[in-house]
Amino acid sequence: MLPFIARHLVCPVHEWLLGRRTFRYLRELERSQWLAPDDIRVLQRAKLQALLHHAQSNTPFYRRRFAEADVDIEDPEPVGALGRLPPLGKCEIRASLDQMLWRDVPGGLFEHNTGGSTGEPLIFYFDRRRQGYDQAARIRSHRWFGVDIGHRELYIWGSPIESNRRDSVKCLRDVLFNHRLLTAFDMSPQRMDEYLDEFDRYGPVCLFGYPSSIALLARHARSSGRQLDTGRLRAVFVTGEVCYPHDREAITSYFGVPVADGYGSREAGFIAHECPLGSMHITAENVIVEVIDNTGELAPVGEAGEIVVTHLDTYAMPFIRYRTGDVGRLRPGRCPCGRGLPMMDVVQGRTTDFLYLPDGTVKHALSIIYPLRELAGVRQFRVTQHEDYSVTVDVVADDRTGRITREAVARRVRPVVGERVDLRVDLVDRIATSGSGKHRYVISRAGPGATLAAENEELKVGV
Ligand SMILES: [Zn+2]
């Protein structure tokens, strides 16, 4: 597919068919990024005021919450009023989901189930407006690197290849948009060789995926002396987990292009993205990012705390002061790139280990996270791989969504770890978080990379 046709015909028609005004939003965002910081704050204020009005009028949950916190939605400084609201946690969303929804939202409600970043699955709803704005923000950030709709994108991403109808539709869409998907779930040395062949055949303009997976591929390519034709490549976009400096270095030094980190989540939206000067710019037209300390008060600019997000375009189910569970800080000043968008750093977010199979296959943690979080009756889980490759899965049951058994969990996990690995499932009352309060879904003590990854050393895959 020619990039021109994808950009000017296929993609606009696709968005129009879905009822998303993505291209109108994109035009807005292309302009507003160059506004002065004060003008961006004016824009934010107007959108926040509209959202607060909507939440008050159409959702019983927020009506009650605003009354309890004494929030005046007519406040001319709504960002200040926002500060009076207690941050919103996943437990409250679970308990009050029905009360948070606006069922009359134009275009309808769409359900999504996510593990979020804390290892506890969460069901939430979104709408076309929210999707359109997130999509537009993503396109804008890729344009910062000269990558546009219709350019060849190679994804190394967590998607098990299944042959149901939905996936065939997705495959067709990938062809039309010039996307190609390679699964990040199986990264054996042989599979990575195939990926490198695919890279040479396809000649992508950008690579997109988990930093850990792309770094693994880069290290593999380097250690096997492989020379790739990277002539067309303009950037490597990474997201979904923390991008460690050693992974960034491995990727840039092998591929010879900038690595651009994107921060966001399914439930909280497209929150921030790095520009070519390395500043992570907040999508301030769509989200308000606050950082709070452990007493729940706003942390001073420059100091680290929990990232709390208000998505200004979530009308189906407003996310107002949503606790992401990630740690970050707001950065003072203005980026020399000229954009008026404020800046932040993500200090700590989702950390995932790989799982190692005795035959040398390296599995991304999401290959085990996805099947588990889709299982009814699971509230929280942790997968621990021991030095002898054996795997223990701890599960906290959630009787409200179904009854869970050890056997049901094992049936989901067995295909991922294979027959040669000892597997044990324990139903437990609670799972302790690490010292930082951050939950890790998957911890591996097996294989060469598990401990080395944190120590900035080279991974030797399949040893
Ligand atoms: Zn910048």
Brief rundown of the structure:
This protein is α/β, with parallel strands linked by helices.
Which CATH first-tier class of the largest domain would you pick? Alpha Beta
Major beta sheet, strand line-up: 4-3-5-6-7-8-9-13-12-11-10
Number of β-strand runs: 19
If you compute it from the alpha carbons, what radius of gyration comes out, rounded to the nearest whole angstrom? 22 Å
CATH architecture of the largest domain: 3-Layer(aba) Sandwich
Shape: globular
Q: How large is the count of helical segments?
A: 14
Note down, in words, how this protein is organized.
With 463 residues, the chain is α/β, with parallel strands linked by helices. The chain folds into three domains: 3-133 and 265-348, Rossmann fold, CATH 3.40.50.12780; 146-257, Rossmann fold (3-Layer(aba) Sandwich); 355-455, GMP Synthetase, Chain A, domain 3, CATH 3.30.300.30. The chain is 36% helix and 22% strand. Bound molecules: zinc ion.
Which keywords apply here?
binds zinc ion, 4-stranded mixed sheet, Rossmann fold, 463 residues, GMP Synthetase, Chain A, domain 3, 3 domains, 11-stranded mixed sheet, alpha/beta, 36% helix, disordered C terminus
Task: List the SSEs and their pairings.
Blueprint: H1 3-17, H2 22-32, H3 37-58, H4 60-69, H5 78-82, H6 90-100, E1 110-114, E2 122-126, H7 128-143, E3 153-157, H8 165-177, E4 179-183, H9 189-202, E5 206-209, H10 211-223, E6 235-238, H11 245-255, E7 259-265, E8 269-274, E9 280-282, E10 287-292, E11 305-311, E12 322-331, E13 343-348, E14 355-356, E15 362-363, H12 366-373, E16 378-385, E17 391-397, H13 406-417, E18 423-427, E19 442-444, H14 449-452
Parallel strand pairs: 3-4, 3-5, 5-6, 6-7, 16-19, 17-18
Antiparallel strand pairs: 1-2, 7-8, 8-9, 9-13, 10-11, 11-12, 12-13, 14-15, 16-17
Helix pairs in contact: 2-7, 3-4, 10-11, 12-13
